[in-house]
Amino acid sequence: MQSFTLGAGLAALAFWGFIASVVVAGIWYDIRKREAQHETVRRLVESGQPLNQEIMDKLLSQSGGNDFRPDRDFKLVGYILLPVSVGLAVLGLVLGLQIPEAQIPLLGVSGLVACVGLGFLGTAQMAKRWYAEDEKSGLGGL
């Protein structure tokens, strides 16, 4: 059985602390952005500016406009992950020449990343069809 040193424990703690801080910073950023949007609307109302529905939708929408399309994001992620999986497979093959035990796990990780990338591409196609159906029915992405 392996025994871990204090340095390994601190490294693991630092890694997970970094992940937690990135998540908290992202949530904090979204909250501050939303507060700024609400402050803008409040100031417009207090100043007596006329507000139409289009301006309100743009100011209060989560993405900053009505052009948010997750299908495009899914496709982009899929196109990024597929070459990454090829790179991991090449890494596994090259590293397997020096350390044979590392080849199979890296090829497995490569396969997993490729499956996730293909899943994102499939999800992008499905979401694209949903947007096309919504546009035909007149819902406009609602």
Question: Can you tell me about this structure?
Answer:
With 142 residues, the chain is an all-alpha fold. The protein has 2 domains: 1-67, no CATH class; 69-142. It contains 4 helices and no strands. The chain has helices at 6-46, 53-60, 70-98, 103-137. Helix 3 (70-98) runs antiparallel to helix 4 (103-137). The longest helix is centred in the first third of the chain and has 41 residues, at 6-46. The radius of gyration is 23 Å and the shape is flat. The model has no long low-confidence stretch (mean pLDDT 85).
Point out poorly predicted stretches: none
| Major sheet details | none
Total tally of structural domains: 2
Number of β-strand runs:
0
Mean pLDDT, to the nearest integer, reads: 85
End-to-end distance = 56 Å
Structural class by sheet pairing and helices: mainly alpha
Cα radius of gyration in angstroms: 23 Å
What pattern of helices and strands is seen along the backbone? HHHH
Shape type: flat
Percent in helix: over 70%
Into which percentage range does the β-strand content fall? under 5%
Counted by DSSP, the helix tally is 4
